[in-house]
Specification:
Length: about 110
């Protein structure tokens, strides 16, 4: 767990594909030390090949990656680098094809 300003970072490892992680938080305060109210859990979906984050691996993901092939990875298109190797290339397309019809849901 680490923070940078108002951002909280949670590192994970060995998360199985097609799962939903629940990260519970408590005792958080705002800039004026007032307790934060609202939901106390954050849900994060882990699904290899889900380039657009809709919980499905399908042709839409392949088209989105195809449209950025050989472009530089930026903060705007980083999600499309499904192999997280810093490249937008055919390996991303193959990875999506390998995981076609995968799905994962979170509450």
């Amino acid at each position: 767990l680490s923070t940078a300003g108002s951002l909280l970072f949670v590192e994970t490892a060995n998360v199985p594909d097609a799962t939903c992680l629940s990260i519970a938080v408590s005792d958080l305060v705002d800039d004026e030390d007032q307790p934060l109210e609202g939901p106390t859990a954050v849900y994060v979906r882990a699904l290899v090949g889900d380039a657009n984050g809709d919980g499905l691996v399908n042709v839409v993901d392949m088209v989105q990656v195809r449209n950025v092939l050989d472009q530089t990875v930026t903060s705007d298109n980083a999600r499309l680098d499904v192999t997280a190797d810093g490249l937008l290339n055919v390996v991303d397309l193959v990875t999506i094809r390998t995981h076609l019809d995968g799905s994962a849901t979170c509450p």
